[in-house]
Amino acid sequence: xxxxxxxxxxxxxxxxxxxxxxxxxxxxxxxxxxxxxxxxxxxxxxxxxxxxxxxxxxxxxxxxxxxxxxxxxxxxxxxxxxxxxxxxxxxxxxxxxxxxxxxxxxxxxxxxxxxxxxxxxxxxxxxxxxxxxxxxxxxxxxxxxxxxxxxxxxxxxxxxxxxxxxxxxxxxxxxxxxxxxxxxxxxxxxxxxxxxxxxxxxxxxxxxxxxxxxxxxxxxxxxxxxxxxxxxxxxxxxxxxxxxxxxxxxxxxxxxxxxxxxxxxxxxxxxxxxxxxxxxxxxxxxxxxxxxxxxxxxxxxxxxxxxxxxxxxxxxxxxxxxxxxxxxxxxxxxxxxxxxxxxxxxxxxxxxxxxxxxxxxxxxxxxxxxxxxxxxxxxxxxxxxxxxxxxxxxxxxxxxxxxxxxxxxxxxxxxxxxxxxxxxxxxxxxxxxxxxxxxxxxxxxxxxxxxxxxxxxxxxxxxxxxxxxxxxxxxxxxxxxxxxxxxxxxxxxxxxxxxxxxxxxxxxxxxxxxxxxxxxxxxxxxx
Length: 527
Prior knowledge:
By secondary structure, the protein is α+β, with helices and mostly antiparallel strands. It contains seven helices and eight strands; from the N terminus they run H-H-H-H-H-E-E-H-E-H-E-E-E-E-E. Strands 1, 2, 3, 4, 5, 6, 7 and 8 form an eight-stranded mixed sheet that branches.
């Protein structure tokens, strides 16, 4: 401002000097006037500035007071907002805690239910396993009983065989006594098995009773779960209501920032709502206590189930012991069976040896008896050098039929009486033929040559006062006699040119005829 004034004064002076040249005194006077004016103006400006400063200071003080007041009000509002927020947070925490507690109680209940279901499933599985084990034990018992029956049958067979072999071997009597003792022991074991079977049936009845009790417990648990579900639905409804109230509170919180005057009224409404929430909280606590009581009851039931499980485990352990004992008995029985099989094998070996001895003895005896029938046994005819060590059953010219050899003497020069024919048959270890049936009759007829059918042959049938008798002592029962010719004396002739049923004729024993001898086949002991 001062620079501007100087410039204006200098400019005016210069202009005046340029237009009208003044004197120095006038100039100085004018400068003094101008400087005084300038000073006055400066004073006025200073006064104005001070007034402005004072006014500004006054206004700033009032503003600061207003600001401090507003700040205090703001602080109070902020504190009230913080208090309200804390209260909201506490309410939210309480709600969250109630929700968490309800969730925890529900989760615990679900976990307890799941555990109970798992325990019931495990118990059912264990029951199924026990029933399967019982079935397997019953099957094993049936198998053991079958094996015992087979062993008893086998023992009976062995006892019979022992009775037969007791005449020859004294040692077999000792084995028989051992077998009888083992049989008594097996009978005792059978009695013990029957007693154990009864005990198992009793345990089965007890398990069925416990199963019924557990089904009742299941029904009660299902009822309680339904009640809990209903309470859960009520809590969900209350939760929805609380969420609605929370939304309303949020709206009111937004309005609080705009309108500070309505805070007290809303505060009173919130206090009322807080009282309602406290009531709801007390209700939730009561429900929580009820749920705790129900959880205590469930824990008691779980303890009862655990006790029942322990009892079942004891029963299972007893059954396992029974199974182990049965397995031991099975092993013992298998050992006894193996011992009996060994004894059976030994007895079978002894029996075979004794049978072989008997067979050898019988074979030697029959061969001895057979050889002793011959006056001179023709070794070269029965055992030709080219066949040795084997021998013939019948000689070369002797036909074989049903275990017998037939010697047909058809030479007219060697025809003899009936008695001499029989003696000659005895020389060859045989006798005159005894015809047993029509088939043998036809066989003999076929063995005679077609050009020798006119010959007649003595057979081993002769007449006695008691009737016709064969040389082996049997009475004749066949009717192969020629019709129209009496047969009341002498001996019988076989005439091959006739039919088989009409080929016998009675003849005097002193007549000379051919003859037919019959003897059993030669039984060689080592053929």
